[in-house]
């Protein structure tokens, strides 16, 4: 299959940058579950090690199954290259540590995934400070930019705050200061948007979620647009990588911190992701449809209030039309009135699985305040849109009539709670 630029999304998921295994004709790239690759001569291995010949040496550095997954991610995010990681958290960490030094500052949204907020706390021990803004807009970010600012980091659709970043506005602002915008696009997925089309410079995904789609492998991926100019006045550590031109960021990552931290993706997990990615379009179409219908149902239900960015009543409705063609993703949050009511609602559900994950084919529910945000202060929780009565729902592909019936009986039950 030839690689073309004019394939539609679902065709590209199957064919772009992918044609199976050239060696065997296997329709999927097999799992090369090995640690090392043998070579005919010492000279040959020297060439592979020094990137003078193509080939594989050691799975921490590269592996055919992982490489194939990276190429498919590169294609569907329209980047110039991708680096797969052992988890979404390692992708977030590596995407940032590739450019940061002690003394540097990050500007980030406060509605971030709980693990990312904890990570930014960990960065403090290494002299890296994060300034949190309530929502990432040109207006909130600009006053915090100074000489030490090295990056603006945001989740495109905040998990679980569900605030949406206006990428054109924010990227234009940060670029005018010579700073890149790194976007965690886990909850938006390439089905809703390619953030590079709107000025983002680097995209990260927790591919454990929608990319994998079946809830069977932890993984992450970093994709680079190749568009950002890493000027050495601000990014000193890029000096030796200038010779790679637009590949400077990826070359630095692969030859440096990512390789040396050893957070490579396992071949089996890369394989599971490559299987998952093929149905991303189908799943997201169904998931977003179900999420909207469920959100509309909650809107007309007494006793709960719903947050979903594609609802007309959401402050992000216009932006969702503009950036995502009206689709709002597959996560919504509810407020049930109290922690007791939230717990009763969760415990009354027949189909929803109580689990800390999103992006599965099955509907998942969680009480974020007592779980994902259990390490956060009250202020951090509030800024992240997490209250004592908040329930996060990761909507699945079940039949919507069953979901509505289930949530309907569960919301009835909370009326019994005083
Ligand atoms: C889950 C998640 C992460 C972390 O990914 P893991 O694969 O669990 O390490 C980061 N960002 C967002 C938005 C997530 O939902």
Bound molecules: pyridoxal-5'-phosphate
N-to-C SSE string, H for helix and E for strand: HHHEHEHEHEHEHEEHHHHEHEHEEHEH
The rounded Rg comes to 22 Å
Mean of residue pLDDT values: 96
Assign a percent range to the helix content. 25-40%
Distance between the termini: 62 Å
Stretches where pLDDT falls below 50 for ≥5 residues?
none
Q: What structural class is derived from the secondary structure elements?
A: alpha/beta
Largest sheet, in brief, is: 7 strands, mixed
**Count of helix runs:** 16
Written account of the structure:
- This protein has helices at 9-15, 42-49, 64-77, 88-97, 114-123, 138-141, 167-176, 189-192, 248-255, 257-261, 267-277, 280-299, 317-324, 339-348, 378-383, 400-413, and strands at residues 81-85, 105-109, 129-133, 149-155, 181-184, 202-205, 220-224, 305-307, 331-335, 353-354, 364-366, 390-394.
- 36% of the residues lie in helices and 13% in strands.
- Helix 3 packs parallel to helix 11 and helix 14 packs across helix 16 (400-413).
- Strand 2 (105-109), helix 5 (114-123) and strand 3 (129-133) form a beta-alpha-beta unit.
- The chain starts with 8 loop residues before the first helix and ends in a 5-residue tail after the last helix.
- The chain is α/β, with parallel strands linked by helices and 418 residues long.
- Strands 1-7-6-5-4-2-3 form a seven-stranded mixed beta sheet, with helices on both faces.
- Pyridoxal-5'-phosphate (PLP) binds at residues 87-89, 92, 113, 115-116, 155, 159, 184, 186-187, 206, 208-209, 218, 220, 358.
């Amino acid at each position: 299959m030839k690689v073309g630029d004019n394939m539609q999304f679902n065709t590209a998921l199957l064919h772009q940058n992918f044609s199976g295994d050239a060696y065997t004709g296997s329709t999927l790239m097999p799992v090369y579950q090995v640690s090392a690759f043998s070579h005919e001569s010492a000279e040959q291995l020297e060439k592979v090690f020094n990137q003078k010949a193509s080939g594989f040496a050691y799975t921490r550095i590269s592996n055919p199954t992982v490489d194939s997954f990276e190429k498919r991610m590169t294609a569907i995010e329209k980047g110039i290259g991708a680096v797969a990681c052992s988890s979404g958290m390692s992708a977030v960490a590596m995407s940032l540590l590739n450019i940061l030094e002690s003394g540097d500052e990050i500007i980030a949204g406060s509605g971030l995934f709980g693990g990312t907020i904890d990570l930014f706390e960990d960065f403090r021990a290494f002299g890296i400070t994060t300034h949190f803004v309530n929502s990432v807009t040109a207006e909130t970010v600009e006053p915090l930019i100074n000489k030490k600012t090295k990056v603006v980091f945001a989740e495109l659709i905040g998990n679980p705050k569900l605030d949406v970043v206006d990428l054109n506005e924010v990227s234009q602002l940060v670029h005018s200061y010579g700073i890149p915008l790194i976007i965690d696009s886990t909850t938006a997925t390439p089905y809703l948007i390619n953030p590079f089309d709107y000025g983002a410079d680097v995209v990260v995904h927790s591919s454990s979620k929608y990319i994998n789609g079946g809830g069977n492998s932890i993984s992450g991926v970093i994709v680079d647009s190749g568009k950002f100019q890493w000027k050495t006045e601000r990014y000193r550590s890029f000096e030796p990588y200038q010779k790679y031109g637009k590949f400077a960021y990826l070359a630095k990552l692969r030859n440096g911190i990512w390789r040396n931290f050893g957070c490579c993706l396992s071949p089996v997990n890369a394989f599971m992701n490559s299987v998952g990615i093929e149905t991303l379009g189908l799943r997201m179409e169904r998931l977003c449809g179900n999420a909207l219908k469920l959100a509309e149902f909650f809107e007309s239900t007494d006793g709960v209030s719903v947050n979903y960015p594609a609802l007309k009543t959401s402050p992000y409705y216009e932006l969702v039309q503009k950036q995502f063609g009206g689709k709002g993703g597959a996560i919504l949050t509810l407020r049930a009135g109290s922690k007791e009511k939230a717990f009763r609602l969760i415990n009354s559900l027949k189909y929803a699985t109580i689990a800390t994950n999103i992006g599965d084919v099955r509907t998942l529910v969680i009480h974020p305040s007592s779980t994902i945000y259990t390490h956060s202060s009250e202020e951090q929780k509030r800024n992240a849109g997490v209250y004592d009565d908040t329930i996060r729902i990761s909507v699945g592909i079940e039949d919507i009539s069953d979901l509505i019936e289930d949530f309907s009986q569960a919301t009835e039950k909370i009326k019994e709670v005083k």
